[in-house]
Design brief:
0% strand; 14 helices; 304 residues; 81% helix; EamA_dom; membrane; globular
Length: 304
């Protein structure tokens, strides 16, 4: 892996990890719907501008996939982000990051049912590891919570948002055969942003926009420009250069970044969250085959 790709993916992990802390901060000043609406409204405008700049606006593609763009915009952009921001109002940044870190595994399960993609033994083991980690986080390691199923509302909202985001990827893979990732993201982002803006009209912020602090606006701009636009561009560029398997490994750094930022900002991190983080990361690494690859490489170097 060359230095340029490493820097791009490390940057992606840092800005994405920071998003959970910033979202938690932003919803103290904006309603969840307003925070999501502002973030994706700005991001959609920037993405559309980039698409126009590249002269890749194809009306034939828009007409062909208008219905599926609308569906994915509602599920993946509106559904996911409404649930994400409402959830972040009620849970910790680290819990949110850990639940979302299982997205590759949720996608694997949905792909099995919707795309008939086989699940390997390695992926099954990874899913079990990650499931244990998520259960630890959701229940705070308490048997009483497991017995009564009294899981935090915020964690459940993030979990449902995770399913929406996985559906977005699986449905896109199934139905958008000739739409580029840039086109899909831009058009679905426009649909989702419009829905989020409409929702914000019925869920106004707790204080007038004039009273929102500069730092809260900076948090929204950071999420819009760095996470939703630059993060997306870096991620997809890396996928083209080194493939999906190697690229996805860097997503495991996201909860680690969130944990570090939580500690720096004074948020208490429990031993259960640390254990949960470890299990989720182990699960995704096992599922992706990274651990097997490392063992093979070590064995080869010893025999050389």
């Amino acid at each position: 892996m060359n230095g340029k790709v490493f820097v791009m993916l490390l940057g992606f992990a840092i800005v994405t990890g920071a998003t959970f802390n910033l979202a938690k901060y932003a919803v103290d000043y904006f309603s969840a719907a307003s925070a999501a609406g502002w973030r994706f409204g700005i991001a959609a405008i920037v993405m559309l501008f980039i698409l126009l700049l590249q002269r890749k606006l194809k009306w034939g593609v828009i007409r062909k996939y208008a219905a599926i763009y609308a569906l994915l915009g509602v599920i993946g952009i509106f559904g996911f982000n409404a649930l994400f921001f409402f959830g972040m109002k009620l849970t910790s940044p680290l819990n949110g990051a850990l639940i979302m870190a299982t997205n590759p595994l949720v996608t694997t399960i949905l792909s099995y049912f919707m795309l008939k993609t086989p699940i390997t033994k390695r992926q099954t083991a990874g899913i079990i590891f990650a499931l244990i980690g998520v259960i630890l986080v959701l229940t705070h390691g308490s048997w009483e919570v497991i017995r009564t199923l009294s899981i935090s509302k915020g964690d459940m909202l993030i979990l449902l948002g995770n399913v929406c985001w996985a559906l977005y990827g699986v449905l896109g893979r199934k139905y958008l055969k000739t739409s580029s990732s840039m086109e899909t993201t831009t058009y679905t982002m426009i649909v989702g942003a419009a829905c989020l803006v409409l929702l914000s009209l019925f869920s106004p912020s707790t204080q007038p926009l004039a009273d929102v602090t500069i730092s809260a606006w900076e948090a929204i701009l950071f999420m819009a420009l760095f996470t939703s636009v630059l993060g997306y561009l870096c991620w997809n560029r890396a996928m083209e250069m080194i493939g999906a398997a190697k690229t996805s490994i860097f997503f495991n750094l996201v909860p680690v970044v969130t944990m570090i930022l939580s500690i720096i900002t004074g948020t208490q991190v429990s031993i259960v969250q640390v254990l949960g983080t470890t299990m989720v990361i182990l699960g995704v690494l096992t599922s992706s085959g990274f651990l097997k690859y490392q063992l093979i490489m070590k064995s080869t170097s010893k025999n050389a």
